[in-house]
């Protein structure tokens, strides 16, 4: 696979962010501006300062067109008579209508000048925007992360990269957690996630709740579980898609005072499906995804049991 590091002498200059934009500092995984691959600096996520929307770079080739096509499929016919209406329309397909709330709202594309040329970005809802101190983790779902078109080299690489995924059905890619006890943000990157063994997953998920009292932790876990079960129920019904190398983004409010001032669990946490470069049309159940999702639910249920005992 391609090398991601270079000597300082050969390393391309950092990209300049255009006026009105900034790097999105809560990005957990995916292409990042700090990475140089094959002599080219990657472009990370941006945030539009005026709209608050996230701009995710469209990858080159089939991966980018596939993800863009998926978003266009889910958020079809965005009410052309009301172009500023934020309500997504999914035509007459109930499966798409049920799926839409589980993924960030798609607002079309935008070309932003980056380096010597413009780059195409997808404009997406910032799921973290409603939280005062967002705590975020990115969890890749599925025992098999390579898609059906993958080469033997790619299959071998994916299996080497995270062998425990085949056992537990998901992989923690990283997290950013506001530690209320120290008033600092704890960051764990994908290198950390790759080192986790199956027996370390429970403590890693506990670490996602660091610095909080048990009552609040339990409230967060129960709210996350409610959302995870809703997504699982959709997967039990749907036969339209198979998702490979796709993730769940889990977010909760790290400021307990802000959470307690709201009676709505919508201000407590959120769970969204993200990363759709490897989504394939299907006519059978997505057992690969549901295996990982069911195991993730079991892990959070076990955490809930532990919190109730203490």
UniProtKB/TrEMBL annotation:
One GO BP annotation of this record = inositol phosphate biosynthetic process
Q: Name one GO cellular component term.
A: cytoplasm
Q: Name one Pfam family in it.
A: IPK
**Highest taxon, organism lineage:** Eukaryota
User: Which InterPro entries would you find in this protein's record?
Assistant: IPK, IPK_sf
**SUPFAM superfamilies per the record?**
SAICAR synthase-like (SSF56104)
| Protein keywords | ATP-binding, Kinase, Nucleotide-binding, Transferase
Catalytic activity from the UniProt record: 1D-myo-inositol 1,4,5-trisphosphate + 2 ATP = 1D-myo-inositol 1,3,4,5,6-pentakisphosphate + 2 ADP + 2 H(+); 1D-myo-inositol 1,3,4,6-tetrakisphosphate + ATP = 1D-myo-inositol 1,3,4,5,6-pentakisphosphate + ADP + H(+)
Q: What is a GO molecular function of this protein?
A: ATP binding
Annotated Gene3D superfamilies: Inositol polyphosphate kinase
State the top-level EC class: transferase
Q: What is its EC number?
A: 2.7.-.-
Q: Which family does it belong to?
A: Belongs to the inositol phosphokinase (IPK) family.
Q: What is this protein called?
A: Kinase
């Amino acid at each position: 696979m391609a090398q991601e590091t270079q000597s300082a002498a050969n390393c391309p200059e950092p990209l300049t962010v255009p006026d009105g934009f900034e790097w999105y500092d809560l990005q957990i995984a995916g292409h990042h501006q700090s990475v140089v691959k094959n002599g080219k600096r990657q472009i990370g996520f941006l945030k539009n300062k005026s709209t608050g929307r996230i701009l995710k770079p469209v990858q080159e080739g089939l991966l980018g067109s596939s993800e863009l096509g998926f978003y266009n499929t889910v958020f079809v016919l965005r009410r052309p008579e009301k172009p500023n209406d934020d309500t997504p329309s999914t035509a007459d397909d109930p499966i798409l209508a049920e799926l839409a709330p589980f993924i960030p709202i798609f607002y079309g594309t935008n070309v932003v000048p980056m380096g010597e040329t413009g780059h195409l970005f997808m404009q997406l809802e910032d799921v973290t925007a409603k939280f005062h101190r967002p705590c975020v983790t990115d969890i890749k779902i599925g025992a098999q992360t390579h898609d059906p078109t993958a080469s033997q080299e790619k299959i071998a690489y994916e299996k080497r990269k995270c062998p425990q995924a085949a056992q537990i059905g998901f992989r923690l890619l990283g997290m950013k957690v506001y530690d209320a006890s120290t008033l600092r943000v704890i960051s764990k990157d994908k290198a950390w996630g790759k080192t986790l063994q199956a027996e370390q997953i429970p403590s890693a998920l506990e670490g996602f709740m660091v610095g909080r009292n048990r009552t609040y932790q339990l409230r967060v876990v129960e709210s996350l579980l409610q959302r995870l079960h809703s997504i699982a129920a959709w997967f039990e019904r749907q036969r339209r898609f198979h998702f490979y190398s796709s993730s769940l983004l889990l977010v909760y409010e790290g400021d307990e005072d802000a959470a307690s001032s709201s009676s709505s669990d919508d201000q407590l946490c959120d769970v969204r499906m993200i990363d759709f470069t490897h989504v394939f049309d299907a006519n059978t159940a997505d057992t690969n995804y549901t295996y990982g999702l069911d195991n993730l639910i079991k892990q959070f249920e076990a955490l809930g049991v532990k919190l109730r005992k203490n």
